[in-house]
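hey so i finally got around to running the thing on that chain from the lab meeting. sorry it took forever, my laptop kept dying and i had to restart like 3 times. anyway pasting the input first so we r on the same page abt which one it is
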Amino acid sequence: MEQAVTDNRTMNRFELAVGNRTVYADYRRNGRTLVISYVEAPPSLRGTGAAGRLMEGVMEAARAEGLKILPLCSYAALWMRRNRQDDLLA
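ok and heres what got predicted. didnt touch it at all, straight out
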């Protein structure tokens, strides 16, 4: 069963559990900016939309906290551009 996106602050990453697999986005906080350095989906979840659902949760979390996002990861940058999340770009 898929769960909500969670902020694992101990590991500095957002996570989305899908079955027994986890999609995650590594980040660091720089003041009011989330710097997303890497998004990873296990091979079995690639192409399923899991990483996109993770990114939706990251955007929701950033909005809720009043944060901007600096996507260093090419996937995160492309996802934000394709999904018109320009208001969150740092």
